[in-house]
Design brief:
Layout lengths: L8 E3 L2 H10 L2 E8 L2 E12 L4 E8 L5 H7 L3 E9 L2 E9 L1 E3 L8 H8 L13 E7 L3 E7 L2
């Protein structure tokens, strides 16, 4: 292992973490049920005033991600960028919950926060939009050292 290349990283300050999260549009939300892990790509919106991350997720009645949200006591969200020699990553960890209907923003706000809904093999009429909140209590950012 004498010829392995290493790249040093340093922590980001709070301001840079918040800027990167504000600019981020997606990442991977990781959930768990006992010993079973479930990672899902998700669109994200950073609520700096509330100290939380919001995700727009859909359900057609067959989605297992909501079963995992119910059993997850602490979720993890990761967003990152790797642009050759420069890279950064942010990890947020904390409790997660699906917001009740009376706390969901209106359609225009949801579109502004998250853009268009990605539809896979579901029927649009069968989809229900949910907003999920990760109230993070840990937030860590790292970037390539210069």
């Amino acid at each position: 292992m004498d010829n392995i290349e290493y790249v040093y990283t340093v922590g980001m300050d709070d301001e840079e973490v918040e800027t990167r999260l504000s600019d981020a549009s997606s990442g991977v939300l990781s959930l768990a049920d006992d010993g079973l892990a479930y990672g899902v790509p998700a669109h994200v919106a950073f609520d700096a005033n509330g100290g939380r991350l919001l995700f727009r997720l859909t359900d057609d009645g067959k989605s297992e991600k909501f079963e995992f949200i119910e059993t997850t006591t602490e979720a993890t969200f990761v967003c990152y960028e790797d642009a050759g020699k420069d890279s950064w990553s942010i990890v947020a960890r904390g409790p997660i919950r699906t917001l009740p209907d009376d706390q969901i923003p209106d359609d225009a706000t949801i579109n502004d926060l998250f853009g268009g809904v990605r539809v896979f093999d579901e029927e649009i009429d069968d989809l229900r939009i949910h907003i999920v909140e990760l109230d993070f209590d840990e937030l860590t950012g790292r970037k390539t050292a210069r």
